[in-house]
Amino acid sequence: MTSRREVLRLGVVGAAAMTGAASAGGAEPAATTQDINRSQLAPQNTPVPYRATFRRPPELVPFQRGFDGGDPKRPFERYALTQKLGQAHMLPGLTSTVAGYNGIFPGPTIRAKQGTRIEVRIRNAFPQQGLLQPGTFSTSTHLHGSASLPQYDGYANDITVPGFFKNYHYPNRQAARTLWYHDHKHHITAQNVYSGLAAFYPLTDRFERAQLPQGEFDVPLMLSDALFQSDGSLGYNDNGQKGLWGDVILVNGVPWPTMKVKPRIYRFRVLDASISRSYRPTLSNGEPVHIVATDAGMTPVVQAVASWRMGTAERTEILIDFRKYRPGQTVDLRNLSNKNNIDFANTGKIMRFQVVADSGSRAGSISSIPSRLDGGGSPTASRGGIDTMSLTPQMATVKRQLRFERQNGQWSINGVLWDDVERSGFTKLFGNPQPFAVEQWTIINQSGGWFHPVHIHLIDAKIIARNTNGGKPFAWEGGPKDVFYAGENESITTLMQFDATAQEGGRYMIHCHNLVHEDHDMMFQYAVANLRTNDPITADPPKHDPLPANAFPPVYRPLFPAGT
């Protein structure tokens, strides 16, 4: 373990050097850069809040559609993504090298329908050496929030090296939610995600389509932050393995953009894709937003809040009603921040909305803010599943505790490091719940002055208690969750059922989603049923990629007008 950490301390690889490496067919970069604490940009290259134009990530079209066994009730879609270097226009007058799915950041959005299974062929076409770390540019892709089998869940040691590919299988049996896919390669997850390996994967169902805005009025917002070198390349500094906090806030890869909105009700899928920074978004005019969904789906009761807290990887779906504004009026989405962030002059800003005259079709819009939402119950009820928000403490058969701690300069869970799991031959477990069991897990932050966004793979959970906020969940936590913001000295009690894919069995991960903490070494695992079932490393390993780089030219759906 020490030797691997020493490798990561050797320095970061300059993105500008990697630009040359890409054109030279993957040659190793010639130089490294020193850690920086703030961007080194000249005034003419420094982005000014609200001058840039908002953009949505492109939506990918499948290269194949069909039906399993010819059965029209069993549809499937196949997609292909190529992990490669690309050039992004984030800064005035400069380009930045990113490592992205299809070479773009954010990566392409994949829109999935409940009941349509999806296969994604993910090809590693990176050069041998990493963009922000000197080791091999290996990857592991996690579809965050999906009840996938362990071998398709992005297990940290299920590694795809350059020149190889892996076919990921996603059942899409769950209720509608905002999923996202991102890298999960142990020890370099933070660098890989920060470099660009992150994208949306919204899952829809008939209940969500009937009640919430669609199409033009369904808008993904990926929040992230970055440091930049003077040439536009990404800078990296994990502050002694504590976290990275950039001074430039990006929304869908654009610094502090302005979005043109019509006087309608919009739905925004807000994702904290920063590797460490938490946010507390709020509208500049004091108006509330309405929470309609959390990580794992719609909230039974819609909540109006003036602001809400988001840790890395949390998703919050909100409605904003622009019908009361006149054309030309603006309102800003700001960031009140939280404890233990590092803030800069403009990190209190996120983006601006500019109201324009109404025009075009009303398709996808809704006429009023709902007060309640019907999720239709659990899609797995016929197989013994219980809707997550219907779980009660009396149903729990086991109670467990997860203690997130800092010991001897290392990040641990219940005193265990991922290195301990590796040394055990991947047999060391936090727990071994049985299929369809209901359990109560309490997450305890005992690491002092740090917060931890805790992600539990596979499950959806209901928060039933906090030791803060009068013992109750916060207003923005009224729906199913898979990431739990454990603030400084906070504890959170949750209920979860191990259903759906869990009946297949296998190992799943638990970790802090401050990705610097995850990499050093705040991860543990549990197994449902048999820990040796569906081995995530050997059950369906990556294969050598025999196809040329241009074998799957991407096709994207038509975009909405620029700035909207």
Tell me briefly what this model is:
The protein has helices spanning 2-8, 15-23, 189-195, 206-211, 418-423, 515-519; strands spanning 12-13, 32-33, 64-67, 75-91, 94-101, 112-113, 117-124, 141-144, 164-170, 177-183, 198-204, 218-228, 234-235, 248-251, 254-255, 258-261, 265-272, 281-283, 289-294, 297-305, 315-321, 330-335, 349-355, 398-407, 410-413, 438-445, 452-456, 461-466, 483-486, 491-497, 506-512, 523-528, 543-544.
Task: Write structural notes for this entry.
The chain is mainly beta. It has three domains: 2-34 and 54-207, Immunoglobulin-like (Sandwich); 215-355, Immunoglobulin-like, CATH 2.60.40.420; 381-528, Immunoglobulin-like, CATH 2.60.40. It is 7% helix and 35% strand. It has helices at residues 2-8, 15-23, 189-195, 206-211, 418-423, 515-519; strands at 12-13, 32-33, 64-67, 75-91, 94-101, 112-113, 117-124, 141-144, 164-170, 177-183, 198-204, 218-228, 234-235, 248-251, 254-255, 258-261, 265-272, 281-283, 289-294, 297-305, 315-321, 330-335, 349-355, 398-407, 410-413, 438-445, 452-456, 461-466, 483-486, 491-497, 506-512, 523-528, 543-544. The strands form seven sheets. Strands 12, 13, 14, 15, 17, 19, 20 and 21 form an eight-stranded mixed β-sheet that branches. Strands 3, 4, 5, 7, 9 and 33 form a six-stranded mixed β-sheet that branches. A five-stranded mixed β-sheet has the order 25-24-26-30-28, with no helix packed on it. A hairpin with a 2-residue loop joins strand 14 and strand 15 (254-255). The longest helix is centred in the first third of the chain and has 9 residues, at 15-23.
